[in-house]
C-alpha cells in the first residue's frame, strides 16, 4: 500500500503497479479507497484464477445431472473468490510489511 504524505489526499495516492484511472478506484468512496487498494480489487486476475475452476466444476456437475448450473452456487463462488483474493493480498501485505 502506498504511504500518504501530509496534505496528500487519498485520490492522488496511487500504487506504482496500479492501473491509472481505473473505474473502480475513481468510483470508490474516499473512506473505502485504502481498503479497495489493499484488497487489490482493481486487479481482477487473482480472483479470476480462483473463480474459473469453481465455475467450471459447477458446469461439469450440472452437465452430468442434465440441468443448468445453480445460480446461487455461482454467486457464492464469485463472492468467495473475491473475498479469498482480498484476504490473501491483505495477509501478504501484512507479512511483507517493513
Concise overview:
With 98 residues, the chain is mostly helical.
Architecture overview:
The chain has 98 residues and is mostly helical. The chain folds into two domains: 1-42, no CATH class; 44-98. Helices cover 57% and strands 0% of the residues. The N and C termini lie close together (12 Å).
Weakly predicted, low-confidence segments = 3-8
Give a quick account of the main beta sheet: strands, pairing sense, barrel closure. none
Strand content: under 5%
Radius of gyration computed on alpha carbons: 17 Å
Give the helices and strands, then pairings.
Elements: H1 23-27, H2 33-38, H3 45-64, H4 71-95
Helix pairs in contact: 3-4
Keywords:
single chain, 98 residues, 2 domains, mainly alpha, 57% helix
